[in-house]
Amino acid sequence: MEFENKKDGNTAGHRKDVSGTEPGTTGQPHKRRVRYKGTHPRNFKEKYKELQPEKYADTIAKVVQKGSTPAGMHISICVNEILDFLQIQPGQKGLDATLGYGGHTQAMLKCLKGEGHIHALDIDPIESVKTKARLEQAGFGEEILTIHHMNFADIDQVAEEDGPFDFVLADLGVSSMQIDNPERGFSYKTEGPLDLRLNPEKGESAAKRLREIDQEELQGMLIENSDEPYAEEIAKAVMTTLKRGGKIETTQDLRRIIEETLSFLPEREFKESAKKSCQRTFQALRIDVNSEFEVLYQFLEKLPDVLAPGGRVAILTFHSGEDRLVKRSFKELKRAGIYSDAATDVIRPSAEECRLNPRARSTKMRWAVRSE
Ligand SMILES: C[S@@+](CC[C@H](N)C(=O)[O-])C[C@H]1O[C@@H](n2cnc3c(N)ncnc32)[C@H](O)[C@@H]1O
């Protein structure tokens, strides 16, 4: 399936513009652009410099040097380790299963030196339109890069069109642009709709999921997807709230319930434990609404058939559930002789990379080589 070329990133019909009015509505009073107030913009929409990295390179460099990710940008992780392993040569054909901001795609495209082709996939219709435009601007048009709006569970379809691939990369999970945009509902830190879908045009939001499942299922989800130690207490509190007619529609509705549930903890433990339980609960819901384990499983199953003999694959994971699936698949397929070699240990980003990009801290990289 080819990427649908939409005019801007605001593809969901119901989304509103910055001023809160429907786009294109006439007769609205003119609103001035929201500007930084002082040197520390307080919210996402005020970070207009960070949201235009091409235009404000100095601001971006300062934010990165301080160990933060500029809003509207994603810092690619383990780029050197990935390139060292993939050994990309001009003329090769590759696949980036998770385009995101396009940082890894661009680094791999550079290795092709104008010869060969990369197919890149993403299910996010909002960010991938922007990335496509950005990469075109950087000189990587359709002659060398094809972007597909597609789930990586369907990699066999791209391979049928133009495979097999000499190299494949998957950098799992969410991008910083997705996490940092409050409208997407990925972060417990900012107010926003409790959505958490990578593709908001499909499936059900996390708020809707919570209304549909029962306490037992929610408890199981919290344990299975993120090893939440207070799964029982949180599941009970969520279901009691909903049964009493309370609403859990926003990120802060859910955060408040988690914090109230953990209020029995001693004061010195409360802050850190509540933060971690919020992170784990949001992660568990995200994995659920995006069927992340199911699609990763399908991807891993199909992978050997899309790789050329001697083809190389690298996968970055961000939590133990993902890493377990990748580790097991590589190990079993190596034992079966389908992969000639596979990582026995994970590769981790350097301490310096983690200092500059704290979001890299949980990254594990695994790799495998398809038998000749
Ligand atoms: C960590 S980001 C990738 C960042 C990218 N490597 C870069 O350098 O900018 C993960 C991306 O994968 C996408 N994604 C997650 N699951 C996916 C799936 N099943 N199929 C396709 N894309 C997916 C997300 O929408 C997100 O944009």
TrEMBL record:
Chain segments annotated as coiled-coil in the UniProt record: none
UniProt GO molecular function: rRNA (cytosine-N4-)-methyltransferase activity
Residue ranges with Basic and acidic residues bias: 1-19
Transmembrane segments: none
InterPro entries xref list: RsmH, SAM-dep_MeTrfase_MraW_recog, SAM-dependent_MTases_sf
Broad enzyme group: transferase
GO cellular component annotations of the record: cytoplasm
Stretches with biased composition (Basic residues): 29-41
Region (Disordered): 1-41
Single GO BP term: rRNA base methylation
Binding site for S-adenosyl-L-methionine: 102-104, 122, 152, 171, 178
Principal cellular location given in the protein's record: cytoplasm
UniProt subcellular location: Cytoplasm
Catalysed reactions listed for this entry: cytidine(1402) in 16S rRNA + S-adenosyl-L-methionine = N(4)-methylcytidine(1402) in 16S rRNA + S-adenosyl-L-homocysteine + H(+)
Keyword Transmembrane helix: no
EC identifiers of the protein: 2.1.1.199
Keyword entries, A-Z: Cytoplasm, Methyltransferase, rRNA processing, S-adenosyl-L-methionine, Transferase
Statement: the UniProt record of this protein carries the keyword Protein transport: no
Function as written in the Swiss-Prot or TrEMBL entry: Specifically methylates the N4 position of cytidine in position 1402 (C1402) of 16S rRNA.
Family indicated by similarity: Belongs to the methyltransferase superfamily. RsmH family.
HAMAP family for this protein: 16SrRNA_methyltr_H
Record protein name field: Ribosomal RNA small subunit methyltransferase H
